[in-house]
From TrEMBL:
Protein name according to UniProt: Endonuclease/exonuclease/phosphatase family protein
Gene3D superfamilies: Endonuclease/exonuclease/phosphatase (3.60.10.10)
Organism: Conchiformibius steedae DSM 2580
Native organism taxonomy: Bacteria, Pseudomonadati, Pseudomonadota, Betaproteobacteria, Neisseriales
Key word Cytoplasm present: no
Biological process, per Gene Ontology: GPI anchor biosynthetic process
């Protein structure tokens, strides 16, 4: 079973430091190039069984008031999807997270993460796979160290009763960060990304991760580039067991 985690940067498509300036208008205005980028992303993610996306736009001005979640779900032909809104900036943008799956999903959690500055959130769902049910969670953490620690502990507590969990996301922390240790002490083992994920054109920081609890798998950093982050993936080793 293949799982992917990817911060898609709302399809803005930054591929160099200069692009943060030259494509600044894409932060606030719609552009045809965003639809082309979304089409590329949809083609790429379709090969995975479950996909967790961060930084999608759910219908703000900058996406032409089109919900990127709906566009991606339709274009990638996933049968099941969930999404949440984390931050609304007037009519400009609607930031969110998304989960897509070729297996049925049962929503468990969709909420904001605790932080001093609001706007981060996480989703969790039970995926009904051929190997039994497992929990998949998708998170986008804050930048501050203390917020990250509180957010990690919040997720640990919320998922404590589940035995098989795959936690994906843009965590905005390095593998040896204090928040990572909170997850590790609770039995979450990091499998991705073994190589840096940010910035995508010259990766230096490993900010995107996949953690497994009660599961086994191999992770890797993907080379597909359509955002300022690189995707990370995990190949899970599963056997038939109906218990979560």
């Amino acid at each position: 079973m293949r799982i992917l985690s990817y911060n898609i940067q709302a399809a803005i498509g930054t591929d160099s430091y200069w692009r943060y300036v030259s494509r600044l208008h894409r932060q606030v205005l719609p552009a045809r190039a965003k639809h082309d980028t979304l089409a590329r992303i949809a083609d790429y993610i379709a090969a995975f069984d479950v996909v967790c996306l961060q930084e999608i736009d759910l219908g703000g001005l900058r996406s032409g008031f089109c919900c990127q979640a709906n566009l991606l779900a339709e274009a990638s032909a996933f049968a099941h999807s969930l999404h949440q809104t984390n931050r609304v900036v007037g009519k400009l943008s609607r930031h969110g997270n998304m989960m897509l799956s070729h297996f049925p999903l049962r929503l468990l959690v969709s909420e904001s993460l605790p932080s001093r500055i609001k706007g981060r959130g996480w989703l969790a769902a039970a995926a009904d796979t051929p190997w039994g049910e497992m929990v998949v969670a998708n998170a986008h953490f804050s930048l501050g160290r203390q917020d990250q620690i509180h957010q990690a502990q919040h997720i640990v507590d919320a998922l404590a009763k589940y035995e098989k969990v795959c936690l994906c996301g843009d965590f905005n922390f390095l593998p040896d960060a204090a928040a990572a240790k909170v997850l590790e002490r609770a039995g979450f083992i990091r499998v991705a990304a073994p190589a840096p994920t940010y910035p995508s054109w010259q990766p230096r920081k490993t900010l995107d991760h996949i953690f497994l609890k009660g599961l086994h798998g191999q992770g890797q950093t993907e080379t597909f580039c359509a955002s300022d982050h690189l995707p990370v993936s995990a190949q899970l080793s599963l056997s038939a067991d109906k218990s979560v």
